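Following up on my earlier thread - several people asked me to post the actual chain instead of describing it. Fair enough. Here it is, all 242 residues.
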Amino acid sequence: MPASFLGEFLGTLILLLLGNGVVANVLLTDSKGHGGGWIVITAGWAFAVMSGGMVAVALGAPGELNPAVSVANVVTGVYPLATGLAHIGAQMLGAMVGATLVWLHYLPHWARTADPELKRACYCTAPAVRNTASNLTSEIIGTAVLVVVAGAIGAQGVLGATPATNIGGFLVGCLVWGIGLSLGGPTGYAINPARDLGPRIAHALLPIAGKGGSDWGYAWIPVVGPIAGATLAAVLWKALTA
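Reply from S.P.:
Thanks for posting it. Predicted structure:
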């Protein structure tokens, strides 16, 4: 088990607690943030990514918090398969625990919220217009932008003579905010298999009052799309910067 396991676990837990927490704050009935809208949700997710990434890095992990990025790092030779699998396991476990804490934090509000789709949206994504090819393409594009721009943030010369380090987490949070604002409309921009699949499993297992189904027919898209987008982008970025 690599030393980075704990960081990826706790960082992803924070990511999902704050990220799905802002969705619950906006969507659930009688929450003080009810009706806050898309700007609030995208900003909350940006801060969630920043916070989770900083926690992970402080604990000695790379701060990926995203199995698609872990897969891309294995494919491009950043670290071996065993490390990638450990990171993915930590991220999935952290995502499920974070989603469970969201359920606990908003416990009285689930029964007060009538629409089961709003409750599911507090855990996982769904398309605005259900079209398999288009939805998959959106997730590929969004994740590719994430990987390319994150690579640029860490590149030498972007913020002076050395790569962005201390403010890198803040800039990645800004990047995720931008992706949400610009590209998030079609699918809710999962761009992270753990962010979607972990909470979707939690949604299926938790005793959420009046929750409805977990939409498993769609669940493969926010897994396959981000993995494909991240891998293609990482290979391209490595070739461009070699």
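The mean pLDDT is 95. That should answer part of your original question.
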